[in-house]
Amino acid sequence: MPIVAFGSGEEFEAHVPLVIVGAGACGLVAALAAKQFGMEAVVLERDALPRGSTSMSQGFIPAAGTRFQERRGVTDSPALMAEDIQRKNGHQADPAIVRALTEASAGVVEWLADDHGVPFDLVEGFLYPGHSRMRMHATPRRTGEELMGSLLNAVEAAGVDLLTEARVVDLHVDDGGRVHGVTLERPDGSREAIGCDALILACNGYGGNPELVARHLPALKDALYFGHEGNQGDALLWGEAMGASLKDLGACQGHGSLAMPHQTLITWAVMMRGGVQLNREGRRFSNEHGGYSEQAAKVLAQPGGMAWNLFDRRIHQAALEFEDYRNAHIAGAVRTFDSLEAMAAGLELPLEALRETFAEMQALAESGAADAFGRTFSSEDLLTAPYHAIKVTGALFHTQGGLEVNTQARVLRQDGSLFANLFAAGGAARGVSGSGDSGYLSGNGLLSAVVLGAIAGREAARQLSCDSAA
Ligand SMILES: Cc1cc2nc3c(=O)[nH]c(=O)nc-3n(C[C@H](O)[C@H](O)[C@H](O)COP(=O)(O)OP(=O)(O)OC[C@H]3O[C@@H](n4cnc5c(N)ncnc54)[C@H](O)[C@@H]3O)c2cc1C
């Protein structure tokens, strides 16, 4: 993605104080926040209909200390949430960013609910791996599509300018690293240049760019990419060309539970409520409670690169709460068997191995000991007939590394100094998931998109107001 050297007398067709690249959750929330602070912004989106990875997600946003939690008797705090995030990533994330995100999380979720009508509620009934409290907030259907719909309505109601079919191809940057504008390209190949006083990169990571995935995530280079195809790593490439500090490029959100061949996300709640994953040999191969992100590579390493999610009627009934799961069920992904014998025959698994796997889980529940992978079982976890099974594979959902930012979402150079007017958030910025595939705590993606997005919009607006007052 080219950087155009500013200063050779280029003409911009229009000028807006703030340009935001990308209309996923990050870009839309940043625009709402800037508007709240009185700053006019235009959001530029390459697609005709903004969707982004946000619309493919479950739309679960973690936040600590919200009134939605209080209403359900959940006691939580930003400090607890920060501890959970850092424990999962091995304390590799910037603690100042983790603190800024966790402390702002409740305020941002409540602001979106109160001022912009996003119908959030607390997701109850299970904890994702690594979370010590129920703190996921989602809209009623539990889909990112619904979250995106709510944000697009909010943006329209707030009068934010959103230009679709407008792919940003160039940044105009002077010798000092100040951004003066962008060039966008329309689907017919025509180009327009827009001047700006500040720029927010909200165009996510590089998951849709196979070359960058092979370079930075070699273990997942053959994994199915299940994020938005428009996420081509443009922010990363611009940052690289400008000399920005790029961090944690090997970090990502994988997922070890994508139904095949239906390509539907099977909620990890299935595992957290007692389900297990078996390989083609009828054996478990991991601690399913370790984390669904690192599970992607573990599933891909099994014979055939696949696994069977195995669970029972109790778990099936609970999972029906999730629209993705209901869709998978309707599509025929969920298979049902009355006995281990029928399951072994139906899934072509060795019966003896299957019996041994079940006997081991029974013994673990009785002894309270952990298995070879570190998982324990309680008697409530034990699966009873009829059994359900779904064939799944591992997938790459999105990348978590990116441009290093400070707590105001301002982008840093490699020497630690700040670019004058460049901001990044969401998947474009370095996340809080450490440096690999195992540091991703569920919700880190939208935390960075929504909360850091709000911070970026607010701080860009604040900076521009100060500049114009000076
Ligand atoms: C299946 C799935 C499930 C997930 N579930 C969850 C979850 O429940 N909770 C959670 O926290 N996270 C989840 N995630 C991760 C989460 O979706 C992302 O972290 C988050 O949506 C990132 O938001 P964003 O706004 O940064 O990017 P996106 O939503 O991807 O938006 C980026 C936008 O930028 C546009 N764009 C890119 N380049 C350009 C350009 N050059 N010019 C103009 N526009 C451009 C793209 O078209 C896109 O619309 C999930 C991801 C997937 C794939």
Descriptive notes:
There is one protein chain. With 470 residues, the chain is α/β, with parallel strands linked by helices. Helices cover 35% and strands 22% of the residues. It contains 15 helices and 21 strands. The protein has helices at residues 25-36, 52-56, 67-71, 78-88, 95-116, 144-158, 210-216, 234-242, 269-272, 292-300, 313-319, 323-330, 340-347, 351-367, 444-469; strands spanning 3-5, 14-21, 41-44, 61-62, 121-122, 136-138, 161-163, 167-173, 179-185, 191-201, 224-225, 246-247, 252-259, 264-265, 276-278, 306-312, 335-337, 387-399, 402-403, 410-412, 418-424. The strands form 4 sheets. Strands 1, 2, 3, 7, 8, 9, 10, 20 and 21 form a 9-stranded mixed beta sheet that branches. Strands 11, 13, 14, 15, 16, 17 and 18 form a 7-stranded mixed beta sheet that branches. Helix 1 packs parallel to helix 6 (144-158). It is elongated and about 75 Å long. The protein starts with a strand and ends with a helix. The model has no long low-confidence stretch (mean pLDDT 95). It binds flavin-adenine dinucleotide (FAD).
